[in-house]
Every structure is written in C-alpha cells, then in structure tokens.
Amino acid sequence: MTEFKRTQEMHQYYRDSxxxxxxxxxxxxxxxxTLISLIDTNSCDPVQCAETLHVLQSGLSPAKDLALKQMIxxxxxxxxxxxxxxxxxxxxxxxAYKKGIRxxxxxxxxxxxSVKYLINAIQVLYRIGEIDEAMALVRKNEKVVDTSPHxxxxxxxxxxxxxxxxxxxxxxxxxxxxxxxxxNSLIKLxxxxxxxxxxxxxxxxxxxxxxxxxxxxxKPEFPYHWLVKxxxxxxxxxxxxIACDDKYFYEHALALVYSVLEHNHDNVLxxxxxxxxxxxxVKYVRDLAAKYPQLEITAAQETIDLKSxxxxxxxxxxxxxxxxxxxxxxxxxxxLLDADALWRKPWKETMGELASNSxxxxxxxxxxxxxxxxxxxxxxxxxxxxxxxxxAQVVAFIEDNLRKGKSLWFLDQIALxxxxxxxxxxxxxIRFASxxxxxLMDVNHGEHxxxxxxxxxxxAAGAYADYKRELQQRHGQLPYSTPNDAFLAISQxxxxxxxxxxxxxxxxxxxxxxPFIRNFAWHGVLVEPLxxxxxxxxxNYQGCTGLVFENVAITEQVETKNLxxxxxxxxxxxxxxxxxxxxxxxxDTKLKDYQQYVTVEEVQCMxxxxxxxxxPLAHIDxxxxxxxGYDYTxxxxxxxxxxxxxxxxxxxxxxxxxxxxxxxHDLMAQDYLFYRYEFDMIAMDKRWFQNAT
Length: 693
Description:
The chain is an alpha/beta fold. The radius of gyration is 28 Å and the shape is globular.
C-alpha cells in the first residue's frame, strides 16, 4: 500500500510544474543544443531519441557514455506522462511503463553513481507518479536534498498534498531562505497552506484577514447593468450563471447553452454575466433570449479593464459577487459553472434531491492541495440564509484581496476552500454536500458525469471536443473553438479560398493564415512594402500557385512614404527580439527604444481598392491585415458593397481607442460578430457563423 496516495492521484499539472531542469556532470562531445533538444518537454519520442543518440560520439568512457544516453532516453520517455501530451486526461500511466522507467533509473544509478543523476532520477520518478520510489531515494539521500532546491520543492509538495504540514514546513523554510520562492508561485501557495493549516492567517500570496470577521450577508441592490432584464424577479428554477468575456462567449459559452438546451431546458434557466462585452456579443445574447424563451435568458455586464495584466483573475473571481447578487435578486438557487463546461445529464433527476436538502453543493477533487479543496468550476448555492452566508464570506475574501492588489491565479479556489474550512471549523451550520468529481464535473469525460469540464488542455482532441462539435452542428453553428477553426472551415468549404493579405512580412512569421494558404492551396494577393521581405515571402511559398505578390504599402493615396524598420540581419547580429522583424512602421517613434538600429526606406503606396481592382479578385473570402498601427486605415477603405469577406482578421494592439470604437461600429453595421484575442481581432460574417455546417 502506498504511503503517498494523494500525491499519486493529484493532477499531473503539479508534477509537470515542479520538474523543469535536469543536471549532467558532463556530456562530452555531444553538442549542448542537441542535448537540450532531446530533453525538451515537447519531445517524447524515445525511438527518435535513440536514433539521434546512436550516431553521436560523446568521447566519454563506455560506462559514462551509456549512462548519459540512458538518462537522456529515460527523461524523453517520462515526457509521455505530461499533461500536454495526454490531452488533459487524468488517468495513471500503465504500470509497465512506469516500471520500465523506474528500473532503468535504478540500473543507471548503480553503474554510475552521480549526485546530478540522482536528482534527475527523483524528478523523473515524481513526474511519472512513482512517489513512493522517489521519496525512498529522498530519505536515503537527505544530504543531497539539503543542497537541492529542485528536490526540496518536490518533497514539500508531497507532504503538502498528504496534509502533513509540519513535515512540509522545514523544506519550505529552506526554499524561502534560498530565495527559490521568489519566482515560483507553487512554493508560495504551499507556504500559505502550511501556515493556515497550522493555525495562522497568512497574508501572502493572498491575505486571509477577511476570515477574522463575519461578512455582511444582507441583500444588496443589484449592482450590475442589465442587458437583458428578467420578466419577473422571483424564480422557482435554479439559474445557471455563465460568466465570460467576448472570447469565451464565442469559443465556449454558446456550446454550453446548447448543452443546457438538450439536457435541462425544462429545469434550468440561464444568466450571462458579461465582462466588458462588445456590441456583437450583446446583440447575440439578445437574439439567444428571443430564440430560446424556455431558458428565460437574462444578462448583465460588468466593466473590467481589458488591458489589465490581472484581467484573467478578475474574470475568474468577479462571478462570485455576481452569484451573490443574483441569489438575492431572483430569490432562487444559483449554479455557477465554468463557461467552457458542457452539460451531460438532467439536473433535476441527477442532483435535484441533493440540491433541495443542501445549502451548498461543491466539487471536492479526491486528491488536491488545500488551495483546490473546493474546485471553482461548479458551485451550487441554494436560496437559504446559510448559502448566502457562505457566498458572502467568499466574496469578502476575494474583494479584500483584489483591493490589496493580490490578484493571484487560484484566488477563487483559495477563497472557496478557506471559507469551506472555516464553516466546518466554527460550525456555521451550513449544509454542505459534495459528490464524486467524476459524477459532478469530470475532467476525464466519463458517461456518468453531470458535466464535462476541461482544465489546462481546452482544445485537445477527444470526447469533449467531439461532443462540443456535435452540439454546435446540431444547433446550426460553425464548429468553433479557436480562430483556426474558422480558417479550417472555410478552407474545406471553398475550393480555393480567395484571400487578401496586407502586411505579409515574410509569409510565415506571426502569420495566422500561412498554414492554410499552403496546405489548402488558397489563391490570393500578398501585399508587402519591403522588397527583401517580399522576396522571403516568395521563397516561403515556392511551389504554390494562384498567388500574386505586391510590393507596395496601402495608404489613402498614391504616394511615396518613409518606412521605419530594423533589418533582419541587424536583429540577428545584435541579438534583438525576433518580433522586431515584423515591426516595420510609418511611425517615426514606435521603434524609439531601438533607435540606433533603425533604418529608413522609401516605399511605394496606393489605396486599397486600387490595388484590389488591378488584381484578379472576384471576391474575398479572407481579409488579413497586419500593418503595425495602420490596420484600421487599411480596413476602412474596403468597399463592402463590392466585397464582403467571410472572415476578417486584423491586428488591433496598436490601434487607439477611437479607431477601435470605429472598427467595432463598422463591423456591427455590416453584421459581423467579432472579438479580440491575443493581439488581433477576428470578425466573421454572422450568417456564415450561424449556418456554416
């Protein structure tokens, strides 16, 4: 029987996060870059690794050469257990797989005793879930552990997971003394958990001070702006709260609504809590409310700064305050569910009896650290004073930390877990209920689950992706999870796709449409004002037909203008950031931080419609723009009475507020739906999006 069952069963994320660095005494004549590529976590092909090593001569003694190559192969083989290589599915690796790695490590250590190989071996065993074996090596080699922060963090994690906080504490103190905690959020979380569980109220990385007093659970006025008002305030059915920004609305939340329709249209209502929604999202929600009256869809908005570095934490946490407000306003139960979840079973038949006899239903993973004792993915709040007290304390915890600038990922789960612990410790009289995670919200997507959820791997192939695609198709929507899905769909529909790309650069770098142009034989025009970059574009599309290359910039008149850029050879020579090669601009100040490397080139310019008219473009399916701040200047020249692209993708990161507002206004006027992602905005013809199956 294992001593470390919880650690064996914990999410693979916590193993992957703590194993990032490997150590070698020497690697002889094997090039360092080759060694790094072989142990890179993206590489998990032991056969290819063996083929590469077979022809490499290290020049080391036979025993050391063999040990080195065995270590490299065992590391590569261990990568197969990583979350990103298993589509996020949380199941143990086969025993034979783990035994092979374990036995290989033991044989290697016997042949060539090495402190660095010992550290590697413990890390590999931890990564593949052989926790007893890893800890056995730790206990036999405490002196090595005393000098290795990489091992100390693993041991601290094991004891934290097992809730043996007093044993974890000495290792955490060593990590703090060495400064290892400064750039490792997990060490901070472990330290926080130990302090709290040993009786203190920690203030780092989040502050537990709000737990010292009871939160105000009085019913507040509804604090949000209604976009779709309820027809009546009192409800008898539970309301599903879906909180999301524009990106998550189109990529995930719509599919969640379809899953509710198919399994719960009679017993669950829907409320959208939208973070700074654009006009296309607001209109889409209103259309949904009219289309599906049985869901009694309502919606409210909350303004969050989309440029804030902490916006993702606010997206995850602010919804709990919204749930508190809804609980009071509707005088009915509320179900919080992640927007990227999918419903699989009817609520009333599956959870109805438990819900009616409980104040709060939470999901408690069977093996999770303290800060995930209560998962934030799904929470049921009954319309009772006890539930209102719990959520009020959770919201007080969250808001106190947001006010103090402690916008930490996991803040929502820390708040839920700490308040759950306090409720039991101080006997608040809350009737908590919980079911097995594989029945409530299943990351492994089993048949008995109420909902299917995803964690780190949101777009992986498998049962979840298949079900999501089927839902979208059944409800007449484009199968869609990322912008690439739109490019793929149109590639499959149009033979060939006709495109116009303004700002082609080299045809590959930072280019969202390059793979589709090449793999699906798109036809179109690529516009690039710099002759050397256009030549690279030609070379990168060698063998492709139906392409026209235009050496010109797009402005509002025929003219010659100065273009400021840093040449690719200068970027390489001075080891400047690679993204600078795509930063050619008409602005003489945008590259001010690299002024000494800037050169100026005169380029020919012409209006967009003049360029289109001189090329064989009967229509435009995809319009791609990346012109370093002049993107709206290019976009607004398109004559929509003559050309209506199905997809428009343009860089917006350099647009000012007025240009962004004008862009969104123009897209709404043409009936596009759109949202921001990374540095870009994608816009899709609404009729195509809704009828693309």
